Amino acid sequence: MKSIRVILVFLLFSCVCYGQRISVSYTRLQPDKKNLNTPDETISYPIFKSAKKFVADRINQIVKKGFETTFNLKPSSISALLRTAAKGSLTWMECNETRNDGAIFSFYLDFETEAAYPSSFSRYYCFDAVTGKLLTLESLIATDKRKEFLNMLKQKQIANIESYKKDFLEAVKKGERDKDDLAIAMDYVKNYCWDNYRSRNFSILKDRMDIYIECGFAHAFLALSPNETITVSLKEMKKYLNEKYKAL
Questions:
Q1: CA 20 to 30 Å from 228, out of 114, 162, 166, 210?
Q2: Residue 237: enclosing H or E segment and its boundaries?
Q3: Is the confidence at residue 7, as pLDDT, over 90?
Q4: Which residues contact 136 (CB under 8 A, 6 or more apart)?
């Protein structure tokens, strides 16, 4: 009987808890068409709802705070924030879910802005759908596996950038790329862009995790940038995950 209890306790703590899916509605606003050439753009700000109100409240508060920080806005109502952002440089916003199964709610927000030149960027969010806790890679990885995980990830990034360098050099030799572009690109990818690694820049999907390591290419050189997504299967991730999330 004692051994059965031990097994049951182990199963309890090694399983991901499931709740209900998070639902999403949108507050939409048109950007300032008078001053910006954006006739077909729409700012779609997501409002999250859950059967557990405190979960939705946590998610909405974190996303709202992120929006205020991104556009350097003072705390205010969502409608007021959107009006201010729409009068500024924000021309487009969209929410893209990658996983929403009652255990994990993972999504990213895409933005487009228009100032001296148009620009686009993303913000990544991953939440425990049961508690509303914002997850980072550090919170998913077992403490004694973090160093090993980071080493694995860095090796994948090094392989990614080395492949990019090789392909770029071949393109220069064939006359498909310019030598000046090569010098610019190599400067951006020094240290394999590892200085730009952030533990919250990732998405969880059904069978894999996409981890984003941006190299920070300026808008004028975006066409030169390498692949900035490192994909790791959840099967491979399993040995690094802590007990709570090992069943992802």
A1: 114
A2: helix 234-237
A3: no
A4: 126, 199, 200
